[in-house]
Every structure is written in structure tokens, then in C-alpha cells.
Amino acid sequence: MKILIIEDEWALSKSMVSYLKSENYLCEVSGSFNDAIEKVDSYDYDCVLLDISLPDGNGLSVLKFLKENNKTEGVIIISAKNSIEDKIEGLKLGADDYLPKPFHLSELSARIAAVIRRRRFNGENILILKEITIDIVAKTVAVDHQFADLTRTEYDLLLYFAVNKNRVLSKAAIAEHLSGEDAYLHDTYDFIYAHIKNLKKKMSKAGADDYLKSVYGMGYKFEI
After folding, report:
1. Residue 4: in which H helix or E strand, if any?
2. What is the CA radius of gyration of the chain?
3. How far is CA 123 from CA 1, 118, 159, in A?
4. How far apart (Å, rounded) are the C-alpha atoms in residues 59 and 7?
5. Cα(126)–Cα(129) distance, integer angstroms
6. How far apart are CA 100 and CA 103, in angstroms?
7. Taking the C-alpha atoms of 144, 202, 178 and 75 in order, what is their torsion angle to the nearest 10 degrees?
8. In this structure, are strands 219-222 and 212-215 parallel, antiparallel, or unpaired?
9. What is the pTM of this model?
10. pLDDT digits (tens, 9 = 90+) for 153-206
């Protein structure tokens, strides 16, 4: 799962990245309004953590931009402005949650998980796709009740395909999901091929049918 942290307090954003990475989230950081707009316009995220007070603009305008452009990211406002007016305005604009500063990182992580669960998994903790069971809380995968031994990247990749089942995902979209804004650092998509090959091999070994199909000239599709 990919998180964008829009926060101009460097120490706070650093601590959030450190904690959320330990929770297996892929994190990107933006410290200004203009950079935040550029990122949400160029990439997709599972959840955006949004500070209202940015040095070059109002964070609520980032929220407006997301909604006006039909982006589906969950949004949690994190702000020192703990007024009822700010909360109401943020929620009216479409934010999923509002967390005043200071906050415990464990609470932040729990709220992120709740927002992603509601938006991506219809409020469920368990995703069942025929013989495959994905536990998004424990971050495990089982095939006919036997656990599959997947790496974190392979788990993320399988979950990404499962959420987007029966849709063709381009190699660029897969690369961005796995590497975020660093995807462009890869000269080729060889790392995608390697991860998909390993995922297919491990899922087959665990007893799952081969649902992951290559779509010539376009990308891959989890056909189920």
C-alpha cells in the first residue's frame, strides 16, 4: 500500500515515514503545496496524509484538487488546527478522517488501515478469491488454508492485482506501485518480470491456479 505524506514539518514527516515503513507501507513525502499537487496529479496512492498548513498554500486545496479530478485516494487530515470549523470543512470536502496533532503513530497507522479497508476492501479484513485468501491485517496469503511463503513485495504485488482483478494493469502502473516515484530510476521493467515470475511460481507451488496473465503489448491481468 502506498502512502503520500503531505507535511512541511521535516522531523514529523521523517518519524511518520520511519514508523509506516516498519508497517510495510511504501511512503512518499511532499513538503509543499505545489509539489503535493504535482505528485497527486502524476501518481496514485492508497491514502494521503494531509497537513492543512503548507508554506505555499492551503492543504484543503489539495483535497479539492483530488475530488475535482475524481481521484480515489483516501485522505486523512493531520493538523495542529484542531478547530471544529476545520474538521467540518475538511470532512465536507471529502476527507475520510481528521487527526489533530500531536498524535500517536500507532493511532495514525490504525486510522490509515481503516481508511484503506473501507475504500479498497469494502470494509473487510479478509479478501477471498476462490482458493486464495488474503488477510490484509496479518498481511498473509493462504491457498486452501495453507500459507504461501511470499516476500513483502510479492504480497504487495498480489494484493495490487487482487484489488484490480480482471483489469489490465500496465507495466508502468505496476512499476509505480512497487517503487513509487523512484520507478523512473529503473531502465527496464526487468524487476517487474522477476517479481511476477517468482509470485507465479510460489502461488503455483502453494496450489493456486494461474490467474495472472500477460496481456501482449499492454501489461498483466489477474483474471479470476
Report:
1. strand 2-6
2. 18
3. 16, 4, 15
4. 9
5. 10
6. 7
7. 10
8. antiparallel
9. 0.78
10. 999 999 999 989 999 999 988 998 888 767 666 677 888 999 999 999 999 999
